[in-house]
Amino acid sequence: MLEELIKDIKNYADVNNVPIMSDSGMRYVMNYISKHSVRNILEIGTAIGYSAIMMCSVHPEVVVTTIERDEKRYLEAIKNIKKAKMEDRIHLIYNDALEVSFDEKFDLIFIDAAKAQNQKLFERFERNLESEGTIITDNMNFHGLVEKDPEEIKSRDLRQLVRKVKDYHTFLANHYAYETEFLDVGDGIAVSHKIV
Ligand code: SAH
Ligand code: MG
């Protein structure tokens, strides 16, 4: 049963420190898919397949292409997707997303990968977005670090990463072709709707 499987996946994520989407963020994305009749989704950052399975569960016609670069997680995702009986609806790609390209177009692109790469990923895959499609990015608040005074953040690497998340926020807010809503859901999500 799907409910049991989801419980097991969440438990695995907890034990193995896999940063799957928060319940409220997941709920928002699923609602979005339902409300806007999204059918064809590209996900960057499969991890162990949790969000891909949840998105597919919204409607029997939803199909997901999803990219993961970590072998252990990719293999775990294969197992979970099989157990969910969604092998024919979830297409897994084992590679670094920055090496992947295709011509297919998607109604929704969900970016949930390395925070520092958000802008690069956005720029790489936006040509794969249908006109009037949407790009959703997770982890915009970076666990509250974005709101902090940079001087309070001790590690230099972390400060740089926080700067990148902020720069991406600015990039989205100023992008002429997208109208972006920043929502305080889960770890902060950006919903960028293509307007031209
Ligand atoms: N969307 C998942 C969670 C993803 S966690 C869920 O909610 O269930 C982020 C994942 O992105 C990690 O597993 C990490 O290995 C992967 N990742 C980060 N940068 C990547 C890249 N450039 N290409 C492919 N995968 C990447
Ligand atoms: Mg995330």
SSE topology sketch:
Layout (H helix, E strand, L loop, with lengths): L1 H14 L7 H13 L4 E5 L5 H7 L6 E6 L2 H13 L6 E5 L11 E6 L6 H8 L3 E9 L18 H19 L3 E6 L5 E6 L2
The structure holds S-adenosyl-L-homocysteine and magnesium ion (MG).
The site of magnesium ion has 5 residues, from loops.
Commentary on this structure:
By secondary structure, the chain is an alpha/beta fold. It has a single domain (2-194), classed as Rossmann fold. It contains six helices and seven strands, in the order H-H-E-H-E-H-E-E-H-E-H-E-E. A seven-stranded mixed sheet has the order 3-2-1-4-5-7-6, with helices on both faces. Strand 2 (63-68), helix 4 (71-83) and strand 3 (90-94) form a beta-alpha-beta unit. The chain is globular, with a radius of gyration of 16 Å. The model has no long low-confidence stretch (mean pLDDT 95). S-adenosyl-L-homocysteine binds at residues 19-21, 45, 47, 50-51, 67-70, 73, 96-98, 112-114, 117.
Structural class: alpha/beta
**Considering DSSP H and I runs of 4 or more, what fraction of the residues is helical?**
25-40%
Number of domains: 1
Name the CATH class. Alpha Beta
- Rg over CA atoms, rounded to whole Å, is 16 Å
What overall form do the CA principal axes indicate?
Answer: globular
β-sheet strand percentage:
15-25%
Determine the CATH topology.
Answer: Rossmann fold
The CATH superfamily is Vaccinia Virus protein VP39
Strand order of the largest sheet: 3-2-1-4-5-7-6
The low-pLDDT segments are: none
Number of helices: 6
Give the ligands present: S-adenosyl-L-homocysteine, magnesium ion
Please report the distance between the alpha carbons of the first and last residues.
42 Å
Give the biggest beta sheet: 7 strands, mixed
Mean pLDDT: 95
**CATH architecture tag:** 3-Layer(aba) Sandwich
Report the strand count.
Answer: 7
Order of helices and strands: HHEHEHEEHEHEE
